[in-house]
Amino acid sequence: MDFGPYTAFIAGSYGFAALVLGGLIVNGWWDGRAQRRALAELQDERGGRP
């Protein structure tokens, strides 16, 4: 597949999109862990599940 003179732009765009999506995935994973930790602390304070 030949993209002609736009090859660098297309490859850079895909690379940037992959970087952004990877960052969103890592951020979601990191935030999920923090939320689970906070929930566990709140449940411990209340004495377990309701």
TrEMBL record:
Transmembrane regions listed in the UniProt entry: 6-30
InterPro entries: Haem_export_protD_CcmD (IPR007078)
GO cellular component: plasma membrane
Main location as per UniProt: membrane
Location(s), subcellular: Cell inner membrane
Gene Ontology process terms (BP): cytochrome complex assembly; heme transport
Bilayer disposition of the protein: Single-pass membrane protein
Keywords (A to Z) from UniProt: Cell inner membrane, Cell membrane, Cytochrome c-type biogenesis, Membrane, Transmembrane, Transmembrane helix, Transport
The UniProt record lists the keyword Flavoprotein: no
Pfam families, per the entry: CcmD (PF04995)
Its job: Required for the export of heme to the periplasm for the biogenesis of c-type cytochromes.
Family under the similarity heading: Belongs to the CcmD/CycX/HelD family.
Entry protein name: Heme exporter protein D
Lineage summary: Bacteria, Pseudomonadati, Pseudomonadota, Alphaproteobacteria, Hyphomicrobiales
